[in-house]
Amino acid sequence: MELFEREIDSTANLLPKDGTVNYYGKIFSLEEADYYYQLLLSEIEWRNDEAIIFGKKILTKRKVAWYGDIPFEYTYSNATKTALPWTENLLVLKKIAEQTTGETYNSCLLNLYHSGDEGMAWHSDAEKDLKKHGAIGSMSFGAERKFAFKHKKTQEKVELILEHGSLLVMKNETQDFWLHRLPPTKKFFKERVNLTFRTIVE
After folding, report:
1. Which pLDDT band holds residue 65 (cuts at 50, 70, 90)?
2. Residue limits of the Fe2OG dioxygenase domain (predicted)?
3. CA contacts within 13 A on the Cβ side of 167
4. Residue pair 194/111 in contact by the 8 Å Cβ criterion
5. Which of 46, 67, 157, 165 suits 112 as a labelling partner, its CA being 20 to 30 A distant?
């Protein structure tokens, strides 16, 4: 058990080059993080994610939800989603993300991972709907999981643990040069809710 919270420099760039990733650590108290965790599990309209692979529809165990300022359409993995209107609590969390990072966002893709078995393969968030080089704010609640970056050319890797109630931001050229993933693990973990605040360009 750590007697003192370690100091986190949110201005430090975790990437050695070709992009910017800032980790703010825990931005909520444990009580606040627990509160939002339970709230998100119960009030979000979770759906199994869909992907079209070789013309065949695949449903993932992982569940997702898509919210935004207006009914934005967002296409990834050859499947299109239409944004639901914000809930009051999502707007509160969006405002906290914006005030903390100094960025603005108009939408949020949420992911629900039920256990350590569920993860996300290497990918970049570079869909044409997204603002190019825009910031993506990643807020985590629940199970603490490893998150990894890999440079597309050099294969350099950067890894960190995303804590309960924490915030990470990816911006600038990060998606051009780096892949990221949430590796699955055999360890038993409770559910994890991840909110990725982003900007859609119409």
Report:
1. very high
2. 104-201
3. 24
4. yes
5. 157
| Domains of the chain, start order | 18-196 (2.60.120.590)
Can you tell me the distance from the alpha carbon of 185 to that of 189, in angstroms, rounded to the nearest whole number?
A: 9
C-alpha 126/C-alpha 143 separation (Å) is 26
DSSP string for the chain = --SSPPP--TTS-SSSSSSEEEEEEE-S-HHHHHHHHHHHHHHS--EEEEEEETTEEEEEEEEEEEEESS--EEEETTEEEEPEEPPHHHHHHHHHHHHHHS---SEEEEEEE-STT--EEEE----TTBPTT--EEEEEEES-EEEEEEETTT--EEEEEEPTTEEEEEETTHHHHEEEEE---SS----EEEEEEE-B--
One-letter amino acid for residue 14 of the chain: L
Instruction: Answer left, alpha or beta for residue 11, where phi above 0 means left and psi between -120 and 50 means alpha.
Output: alpha
Predicted model pTM: 0.90
Half-sphere exposure of 164 (CA within 13 A, CB side): 17
pLDDT band at 3; cut points 50, 70, 90: very low
Q: Is the pLDDT of residue 19 over 90?
A: yes
